[in-house]
Design brief:
Blueprint: E1 15-16, H1 20-27, E2 34-41, E3 46-62, E4 65-76, E5 79-86, E6 91-95, E7 101-103, H2 107-112, H3 122-126, E8 128-129, E9 141-147, E10 161-164, E11 167-171, H4 205-215, H5 221-235, E12 237-238, H6 247-253, E13 255-256, H7 258-271, E14 276-285, E15 288-298, E16 302-305, E17 319-323, H8 326-329, E18 340-346
Parallel strand pairs: 1-2, 12-13
Antiparallel strand pairs: 2-3, 3-4, 4-5, 5-6, 6-7, 8-15, 9-11, 9-18, 10-11, 14-15, 14-17, 15-16
């Protein structure tokens, strides 16, 4: 379907995650040794530092074999992954903070071992149950206390969210008094939210054509965004997806979860001249908060929109933690299993 080139400026020479183990081996494995590398992630098209500590040396039991290994702790974006590597640099086991474990074994063992007792529902494991259920339908106001986590660096304050210490108030937007906003929006400060990215290809002819067909002659930003929102909600089949969300892929396949819905909506808005951005955080459903993605578009003011749940604006249980693409959303992983939410008030 053609080739596109993107130039990315990096502050330091990067390496790929797949080359880390050979690099570590070349430095020499010694207990207590600390190493630092800059990792480039093709999925997010960005680089970030990884800190590695050789924590110790221990024997690992795998399928009746005893293997002498070094235990490494690798911290990336606040998330620590532990791995065990042998003297030759082979990774024998890895463990993530969410409880996922990878073990090096033969194909025969992997296919024949009885893993039935180790199944895990990751959606349930990441849920944040609350003691006080929210019974209001489409709540306009929510007050919660966020506990058990360092919230520094998260995007908790916005037009619809007000943070006071560990207490957060969310107010669903009132759209009745939005100032007039005609598309395409041309303000310089909005260019970041109108420009294409490697996974939000809003300048692509296919996305521009689709956006034009959906909105027709509509030039009111709110009404045009509502048309795009409704189209995404009705058109995209709601199924879990394991791929990296790409707007063009979602437009072609028309299937995905909240990330795919939000990514396509953002791309269509930008293609139509409506500033739009990705958001990620948590949303309430049947007794618990779950990690979720949605978006915000500009129509005189920023307005939340959730094309997965068909909410425009999104209800007050949408608690934004991060604004931005996959590279920023990865930061949420360090909250999983730790963040607690106390519901104080809602209406």
């Amino acid at each position: 379907e053609g080739t596109k080139r993107t130039a990315i400026e990096l502050e330091e020479a990067p390496c790929l995650a797949g080359t880390l183990k050979p690099l570590i081996l070349s430095e020499g494995l010694e207990v207590g040794k600390r190493l630092r590398y800059s990792i480039f992630d093709p999925a997010t098209m960005a680089s970030a530092p990884v800190e590695i500590v050789v924590e110790g040396k221990e024997d690992l039991e795998i399928r009746g074999r005893t293997i002498a290994c070094y235990r490494l702790g690798s911290t990336f974006k606040g998330i620590t992954l532990r791995s065990w590597i042998d003297e030759e640099g082979n990774t024998m086991r890895e463990e993530s903070p969410m409880g996922l474990m990878l073990i090096r074994e033969s194909k025969v063992d992997a296919l024949t071992a009885n893993w039935r007792g180790t199944k895990k529902d990751f959606l349930a494991a990441s849920a944040i149950p609350v003691e006080r259920p929210i019974t209001a339908d489409y709540p306009a106001y929510l007050k919660v206390r966020l506990l058990n986590c360092d919230l520094q660096g998260f995007d908790l304050s916005s037009q619809r969210q007000a943070l006071h210490a560990d207490t957060l108030e969310i107010t669903r937007e009132d759209l009745s008094d939005l100032p007039p906003c005609i598309i395409p929006v041309g303000q310089k400060e909005m260019q970041e939210y109108l420009s294409p990215t490697p996974f939000i290809q809003s300048a692509d002819p296919a996305l521009r054509t689709q956006a034009g067909e959906i909105i027709g002659d509509e030039r009111n930003a709110l009404k045009a965004a509502a048309l795009l929102h409704d189209w995404v909600y009705r058109t995209i089949e709601k199924k879990p997806a394991l791929s990296i969300p790409s707007a063009l892929d979602v437009l072609r396949l028309k299937v995905g979860d909240c990330n795919e819905h939000a990514t396509l909506f953002v791309a269509l808005c930008r293609a139509a001249g409506i500033p739009c951005k990705l958001c990620a955080g948590i949303v309430y459903n049947q007794g618990s908060f779950y990690y979720h993605a949605w978006s915000e578009f500009y129509a005189g003011r920023w307005v939340s929109a959730d094309p997965t749940l068909d909410q425009l604006p999104a209800d007050a249980t949408h608690i934004r933690l991060i604004e931005g693409g996959l590279d920023r959303q990865l930061e949420i992983i360090r909250l999983i299993g730790a963040l607690k939410v106390e519901v104080l008030e809602y209406r």
